[in-house]
Amino acid sequence: MMATATFVLVASVGGSPGCAEHGVTVGVDEPSSPSFTTKDDSGAGDAGMSPAETPAMCPVTTCSLPHATCPSSNFPCDVNLLTDNDNCGACGVRCDGPNTGNSKWSCVDGKCAFSCDDPRYRNCDGNPTNGCETRANDNTNCGACGHVCPADTVCTGAACKPVCEAAGFPDDCAPPDFPDQHNCTDKRTDNDNCGVCGNRCDPTGPGLPALPTNDMYYGCGDKKCTLPKCKDKTKANCNLDVTDGCEATLGTEENCARCGDKCAPGQICFSPPLGTPQCICAPGETLCFGVLCVHADDDPDNCGGCNQRCAGFGRPHYAPTCTLGVCGGRCEEKFADCDGLTDNGCEIDTRVDNRNCGSCGHACLPGQVCSAGECLVAPCDTEGPTTK
C-alpha cells in the first residue's frame, strides 16, 4: 500500500478506540465517548456497498496542503498557507512590506505580492517602497503608466478628453486673445454665445413682438436669439403662452428641474443650495436630515425612524439587522455566538474550531481536524492527509 504524504502532524488520537468494523461516528458533544455505527442506518453502505464491504472510517489528525498548524494557530490546521498574510507559503513567513501610498502586501497563492489597494492610483515608478504614487487620472499617466495626454486635453475617466467635454459642455468659446483659456458653454442656449462664439443676444429682441409681461426677455434657444425666457431662474413658461408670462414655479413635485419634470408618487423635489433640483426618495422611503432617503423598515442605521441606530455595530463578526422597523442581528456566515455574550459578538469560527465544528457544541475527537465545519474522517487504512 502506497502511503500518502503528510504535511503537518497535529496529534494522534490518544486513547481513542481502534477502528470498528463499520466505522466511527465523529463530531460528538462528548468526544471522550465516541459511538460506533454504520455509515447508513438503513444497512446499505456507500455506493451500494453492503455493510460488510463499507470501509471503516477513522478520524483525520493530519493537515493537507495548503492547510497547516503554525505557532500562531488556535486550532489544528486553521492556517491556509496560500492566503494567510502571517504564514505565506510557510509558517512564520509574513507579508509585512510597507503598506504605504495606497498600496498593500498580501499573500497570493503562497507568495507575498505587492498591489495597489485604490484603483485611482498606480505604481508607475516600479518602486514598492513608496507605494502607488501616481494618480490614474494624471495627464502624464492617463489610463496607463506613461500615457501622456495631448495639449488642450485632460485626463478623466482614464481617457484623454478635450477640456470642455471633460467638464460636460459641448462647446468651447475661448477668448481670441487668450487661446490657452477655456470658456466652456453650450451654444444652443448661451445668451452670450448664441449659435457662434461671441454672438450676444439683445434681451429686448429687436424686430420681435414685444413681450406682454415684464418678467420675460428674449434669449438664446436652439442657437437663435428668439426664445422668450424668464428673468427669475425659479420660474418657467411651461404652458408656452407668453401672455401670462412665467406662470410655473420650478422646484416643485410637478415641475422639479424643468417643465414637465414630475416626481413619481411618494417622491419629493429636493432643491440643493447649489445645483439643480431633483426628485428624490422612492415610494416607501423616508427623508432624513433633509438630504438622505432611507428605508426605515430595513435600515439598521435608521430603523423605524431617522437616526435610530441598531446596537451591535463593531462587534466581531456580527451584523445588526432591521426588519419591519425592529432591530435585530445575526452572525456572519460560518461564525457563531457560542458563549451568549454580546460584547464579543460572534466569537467562534465554526469552520476550524474543533470544539464547535459546524455549530456550537459540536466537538470533534481530540486532535481531529475540523475543516470547513466538518470533523474530517478517512478510511482507516489510509495513511497521511485526507480532505473531505
TrEMBL record:
Listed name of the protein: Tryptophan synthase alpha chain
Recorded source organism is: Labilithrix luteola
Start and end residues of each stretch annotated as Disordered: 28-51
Provide the organism lineage as a comma list: Bacteria, Pseudomonadati, Myxococcota, Polyangia, Polyangiales
